[in-house]
Input
Amino acid sequence: MEQKAAEQKIIDLTQKLNHYNLMYYQKHTSLVSDFEFDKMLEELQNLENQFPPFKQPDSPTQRVGGTISKDFLTVKHKYQMLSLGNTYSEEDLIDFDKRVKKGLIEADFSFADIEYVCELKFDGVSISLIYENGLLVRGVTRGDGVQGDEVTNNVKTIKKIPMRVNVDKLGNEFEVRGEIFMPKKVFEEINQEREEMGIEKYANPRNTASGTMKLQESSEVAKRKLDAFIYFYYADKIPFKMHSEAVETLENVGFPVSNTYKKCKNVEEVLAFIQYWDKERENLPVETDGVVIKVNRYDYQNALGFTSKSPRWAIAYKYKAESVSTQLKSVSYQVGRTGAITPVAELTPIFLAGTTVKRASLHNANEIERLGLCENDFVFVEKGGEIIPKVTSVDADKRKPNATPIQYITHCPECNTELVRNEKEANHFCPNSKGCPPQIKGKLEHFIHRKAMNMDSLGEGKIELLFEKGLLKNIDDFYTLTYKKLFGLEKVILDADTGKTKKIGFKEKTVENILAALEKSKEIPFEKVLFGLGIRFVGETGAKKLVEHFENIDNLANATLEKLAEVRDVGERTAQSVVDFFQVKENLALIENLKNYGLQFSQTNANKIIVSDDKLAGKTFLFSGTFSQSREDLQNKVLEFGGKLGNGVAKTLDFLVAGENMGPSKLEKAQKLKITMITEKDFLEMIGENKTSNKSANISTNNTNNISQKGLF
Ligand code: IVH
Output
């Protein structure tokens, strides 16, 4: 493309995409489909790469990140970022109101029209955003209030923060302040993923948002889906009479302003606002810890001025986290799927913020030490923003003299193996991954998870029963389950939450569903199978990235630490964990077994298969049951020889290749439709490979994508 045309195209695309973004994020209106948007964004990115000088300062390509900051630049704030005075009581607020009025009288202002603006106090990271001629030029963290870190590239990944705004009402040079936060839902999703990966969960959305803003790779920040609310406007010459006018204007030009703010005519209205939001704030997408009360008129604000630390015209009312004192009965220790030990405080039941609390997590040994917890201590329990209660401190007044400090366990409470604690890790671990019951059950449960093999017909206590009966010891045992083994098993269990008993049973329909789910799981893509293997630190996204990069299990198993760490989103810790996993002989044998049962161990991508011969052209095949080599290898052979794969037993099918333990319903249907049934041996003869493959524990010899093997056919 010619230079001039490229420049114009870049400008057009930038404008269009920014408009779509604004409409989507501020007005909740989609003007184009996601697909069209992504295509346009890709086109813009390509043009920017080709013609870098034409890249616009408000280019939407910055939203996805891509920059890496080694160290953040320290920037001095033009207007100091002060904090607010805190109060926890209504009396303090009434005093504040009196102080404001007194101050105004002393400054010769009448206070007849005093008005406050009440806003929620968002619990995130405060940010200062500087705009010049309508363009976002800098984003700076609070730091110590005088100077902070320049995090502009990270700020630009937050889609609701406009990169260009209309300056008519705001002036050419201004600054806005607000709070960057992680929505509660995003936080929960991230923590769920971390739990599934067997790594320590983040403590709360605020710390996570703060940590995210300090990430050096802005593309990583973009993935964290941060959000923001703006609540403040600064300029040398403020073109408004009131704070509320400024906030309304900010909202109108496209800044994200929370619509929860309210003008209040007197302190009674302020108190009513506080009361209303005490409960209601739970329904907001962001954590809030109080209410900020600001004098609305700027001339009043100026008259009142500042103390050395905070403005006299504003105050923060902080909601008290409800806290109760109760006695510690004991500390129990939970063992997770990965062997991580979590200490739990077993408490004398107590009512707190709507529910009865019986237990609270103590996180790890460091936390017990921080609390200085002793046996039979009375502890304060709080429910913060998080649903799970936490022990905040020990009620020292109630401690018995000579109380015995809690001794952290040295051996696994489930299998008595000596615990280990790795350097840099807060949790203790039970290393007995193969013999420790909760670890085994945890791995089995992880394997059937919706995001892995998706076999929920095996959920709800069934795994426990099958484990007890000795039918499940490892994940490959799932594929040895038969109707005969399952039918009729039953057990009565006690539901710990409700205290009621429940019967778990394997009736005819349940067994059929389980067997069907097992059969269907053989079609589950490799990335989910890999996630299901439960390799420590390999979460859903990590598994996806590894599969994209290495394509099949053999490449992955043979990858070096360096090669693994090169993969985007795969850190050193994950890379080491993958290497460790494939060094264990039992794991290799497990994979070999799963392969033979027909699970997918390479990226399903028909395009990758090079057709070497057209012996099978026009013919459709379906494989059912187990074979001497992996089902996936056999399927790839069909494609290599120009054939097609069928989706199920249907008229369009030419051959049903029947393996061992083929499902009876498939057999019946195939007979009805008069579909030709052949054995694995027949199939191999068809393609001129009449020997069955050599089963070997060395999985690397079984590389399905190894094109050089074609010479054999
Ligand atoms: S106004 C000069 N409004 O609370 C005062 N602050 O302790 C400017 N915050 O550092 C702050 N929500 O990070 C203001 N609606 C709100 C707020 C808010 C949260 C944070 C902010 C500030 C701290 C004050």
About this structure: The first strand starts at residue 74 and ends at 76. Confidence is low (pLDDT under 50) at residues 692-713. The chain has 24 helices and 22 strands.
